[in-house]
Design goal:
globular; eight-stranded mixed beta sheet; alpha+beta; Fructose-1,6-Bisphosphatase, Chain A, domain 1; 8 helices
């Protein structure tokens, strides 16, 4: 059987893309090239001076790792050189970058990217990833404007992630299903390995940092207890699996069936994950694979973004499991309302 590379697959599916004129095809190719460079450095990180903290903090006040900075630079340089985007926003930067090159300033797309998700796991050799989101610009000409980035998730034309693990995979959607490509190091190409990925409508894995249990909303606490109860008809108790790298946890649950939960807490009342860099792109993938993504009460891709680094609770994965936790949250809210009245 002939191996199909990512570039071949993208070109073959080009007619599926909105406004199919080749720019989005080249843009996805640019992202894959930068991912290969980052993968190379991730794989040899322990052999060179690229592990550990870089010595600065990003806009969220999180300590930047050396690989964070390296990955951020590689993706920005690749996207800038490609000329298909008029602006880039990164989780690692305070503000977006408007590109003013003769070609790029008239690019039709903007990209939002989390260059290295799970970077706190870098030094202990745990899977990490990259998450990206692509929108068609809504401004007319020149470099990008803030409004180009502050679009609801349902306006995405493509999103995806790269997981750097025991093998390196790139998974993406353009609104016509989800496909995964594994990097073959012998030829240096991403090759189709997981065609038409679908998330099981239910599963037996729940992923949450239970160390924060005391700070969770009551609805989440009750859902966790529900997951831990024995009940043969619903295959409970469920299994708890939490890696601490969003991409890795989401990827496992998408393939095996499960739910990833990062709720609001007393310490982070608006949630901790970023709507534009993490929640929206993964929500697009989840929905295209038959899953669901919610902030607990509302579809993630309907949340109205007000700022680049807006935070949001996230409940994502198998559809029936997300709907179950929504029921617990709604019941808790109704109970609280009755108690107050």
């Amino acid at each position: 059987m002939k191996v199909k590379t990512l570039v071949e697959f993208i070109i073959e599916r080009q007619s599926d893309f909105p406004y199919a004129t080749g720019e989005l095809t080249r843009l996805l190719s640019d992202i894959s090239i930068a991912a290969k460079v980052v993968n190379r450095e991730v794989n040899k990180a322990g052999l060179v001076d690229i592990l550990g903290a870089e010595g600065s903090e990003n806009i969220q006040g999180e300590e930047q790792q050396k690989l964070d900075v390296f990955a951020n630079t590689q993706f920005i340089e690749a996207l800038n050189a490609g000329g298909e985007v008029c602006g880039i926003a990164s989780e690692e930067l305070d503000d977006f970058i408007g590109l003013d090159g003769k070609v790029s300033r008239n690019g039709k797309y903007v990209v939002l990217i989390d260059p290295l998700d799970g970077s706190s796991n870098i030094d202990v050799n745990v899977s990490i990833g990259t998450i990206f989101s692509i929108y068609r610009r809504i401004s007319f000409t020149g470099s990008a404007t803030l409004e180009d980035f502050l679009q609801k998730g349902h306006e995405q034309v493509a999103s995806g992630y790269v997981i750097y693990g025991s093998s390196t995979m790139l998974v993406y959607t353009t609104g016509h299903g989800v496909n995964g490509f594994t990097l073959d190091p012998s030829i240096g190409e991403f090759c189709l390995s997981h065609a038409n990925i679908t998330i099981p409508e239910s599963g037996n894995i729940y992923s949450i940092n239970e160390g924060n249990y005391v700070h969770f909303p009551d609805g989440v606490k009750k859902y966790i207890k529900y997951c831990q109860e024995a009940d043969s008809p619903t295959n409970r108790p469920y299994t708890s699996r939490y890696i601490g790298s969003l991409v890795a946890d989401f990827h496992r649950n998408m393939l095996k069936g499960g739910i990833y939960i990062y709720p609001e807490t007393a310490k982070s009342p608006k949630g901790k994950l970023r709507l534009l860099y993490e929640c929206n792109p993964l929500a697009f993938i989840a929905e295209q694979a038959g899953g669901k993504a919610s902030n607990g009460f509302k579809r993630i891709m309907e949340v109205d973004p007000k700022e680049l680094h807006q935070r949001c609770p996230l409940y994502i994965g198998s559809r029936l499991m997300v709907e179950d936790v929504e029921k617990f949250l709604e019941a808790s809210r109704e109970s609280a309302g009755l108690a107050q009245s």
